[in-house]
Amino acid sequence: MAETILTSENLSNPSPLNPPSRVICHVRCQKQFSQYTCPRCNSRYCSLHCYKSHSLGCTESFMRENVVEELRQLQPDDEIKRKMLEILKRFHSEEETHTVDEDDDDSTLSDETIQKILSGREVSFDDLSLEEKKRFQKAVASGELSKMIEPWDPWWLNPAAGTICLSRDGTRLVQPIANLEASVPPEDDLESNQSSGIPVGPETPLPSLRKLISTEPSPLLAVHLVDIVYSYCFTLRVYNGDWQSDAIGSAMVVLSISCVLGQAGQPETVREALSYCLEQTCSPAYRHIGGLQFGLVLVDDVATLLSLGGPALICMLFDLQRMIQAGEEELKSEKPRKLRKAEIKSKLKLAERKVHFIMCWVHEQPGEAWSSLGAMVKAEKSSFMDYGGSKSFSKMENKAENKGKVLIEEM
């Protein structure tokens, strides 16, 4: 039986006695057979071109309803709602305090970008239009975006950081039975500690140094620890405490600041270790962040962390190890040049081993060692400030131009 061609949309239900009919597209072309049906108005159409042209309002409203329904099903928690409300309040307050320019119509995001944001997909810089990229870069240069970022308070300045306790094997302490009802599941323990700001300690016991090396550890490890702590504090302050947002970028910043982790250097004195870190801070790559003044703040951070004692240092080193490991995982999905990727992977792996070794060494040191090392760091800061002030700043800027060189000061 020959199939029937209809030009009307009043279709009958197909059955064995009434085979399905084929309908001509009534949207635009009226030439091709219709194969699809608009989910909103039930109009029959033959192709994507006809669908887009049959009713712009129909297609947009259908997409809008889907997005709204999807957002309703997300059901964000109270913390996400609170952060979003704070961002919106700051955004609207900024709009009220600034006059609206005539070119404000050009500042709005494109429909495609808005749809990506509403659907929850990640929006990268490459997704922006040329005009959006210009406005974004202008906002970054003027510091306008920084107003929407809540300032971060370093966790080592939190009074609770002075009460960190670990077990004898260097792992997190088991919670008392009385607190089990208020405790969180083990899988949520890491997240809850991050929300409080203070990083957690290791999950597995730290091995003895005798199992890692057959000889006595180097007496310079205390100096190397100062270098590593400085690079960690630098990175967390640069990333506003959120290294998880760019793990591989954070790990590479650590390697660029640390002489021990990034250059396989062997500084022999606290002054030498701090000098290298300060020179990197004053280098052209990071000079815009604050230069020497920012570096001196980081020296205070190092002294503060050392004053907190071994448990806080172990938590800091474990957090740094997690940062490097996360960077290694991200690197697997990156697509840099093959040789460059292998080089970065090798550096990260070596840095992770060094951090783990230093963490095991810190665990076996007596508590009084850290107060004396912190006093040395404070003394070096005073000497930096007394030794020429702005002259020392100029010297460090000039030395920082020599990339990749570990400067060893003659005694």
Automatic annotation (TrEMBL):
UniProt xrefs under Pfam families: SHQ1, zf-HIT
Every HIT-type domain range: 25-58
Molecular functions (GO terms): zinc ion binding
Gene3D superfamilies reported in the protein's UniProt record: 3.30.60.190
Keywords: Metal-binding, Zinc, Zinc-finger
Designated name of the protein: Zinc finger HIT domain-containing protein 2 isoform X1
